[in-house]
Amino acid sequence: VGRSFIEFVHPKDRSTFASQITKGLILPKSVYGMQNKVSELCPVNSVSNIFCRLRHYRGYDACGFGMKDQELTYLPFSMKLVFKSINDEDGKNVYLIIQAIPCFSAYKEPNEIITKSISFIIRHIANGTLDYLDPESVPYLGYLPQDLANHNVLLMYHPEDLSYLSQIYETIVKQGEVPRTKSFRMLAQNGDYVRLESEWSSFVNPCSKKLEFIIATHHVIEGPTNSNVFQKPRNEIRKFVNFTEEMKINSKLIRENIVKIMNEVLTKPAEEAKQFMTKRCQDLSIIIESIFEESPRSEEMLRKGQGRDSEMLGGISPNHDGKSSVETPLS
């Protein structure tokens, strides 16, 4: 009690936590040039959800007086943040209420066969950089969304599966989408691999005709050897230590080729977008030409219309002082 909550947040997650709670708390100046009260500007009752690792409590019973020599342990939590306006002894104040729910691995045993997996989405741009990680993936891969910010998704594929995935990417780029694929392996947070089957789609910018991003919907069919995806990896370079130098070099070349495919191969969606824009330009050109062709006709019809109006009015001439130029005998 009395300690700052952020002290218990993992150092890697503190910026995520801080940025989330400060959203909407910038204090604009009032009409009188004075800053308004925080209680009047906080997004009261607004709810936001994040994932953070919190420090595991170490008691004297477990560690004795050698607590400082023990490595800190952090556990992943799904956290719901809510600002609440509460009247207390000091008046009306705003408090941050945090509801933390622990995250557990989706797997119970090594290499578990998954029959009812929840699908999750991963999206990356044309150079492989990941720009969206579905929160549903957390118990299946072990990564928190902030862990993979600006991370290259191509590094998460098993080197032995890259040749097959290169074919998949070429099909995605050319056709725009790929139905459910054969299984392949993806690296989990603990350094082991999970086996997935996936459906793929892509988005091509209709203006630049270039591939913007690729969306993959993944279905886990087999868990990793180490069933606890949140466990700390055995080594920092993960399981690449088991691959030969030749495999590492070959994997690097295939990844570079996949990036080249995403940026240089002419896509079917891009060709369709190009044809669509060409047709739109042709239609617009026809409309503009028809407008210019109609303009002289409209002027000619207007002149003819004015002549008929003069005849209907009895040929009134401005040189006859308003008298009819044709005298009509009385009956």
TrEMBL record:
This protein's record includes keyword Protein transport: no
Gene3D superfamilies for this protein: PAS domain, Single helix bin
One Pfam family this sequence matches: PAS_11
Keyword tags: Biological rhythms, Nucleus, Phosphoprotein, Repeat
Subcellular location: Nucleus
InterPro entries named among the record's database cross-references: PAS, PAS-like_dom_sf, Period_circadian_regulator
A Gene Ontology BP annotation from the UniProt entry: negative regulation of transcription by RNA polymerase II
Principal place of residence: nucleus
Gene Ontology CC annotation, any one: cytoplasm
Comp. bias regions, Basic and acidic residues: 295-311
Protein name in the entry: Period circadian protein
Residues covered by region (Disordered): 295-331
Record-level Gene Ontology MF annotations: transcription cis-regulatory region binding; transcription corepressor binding
PAS domain boundaries: 106-176
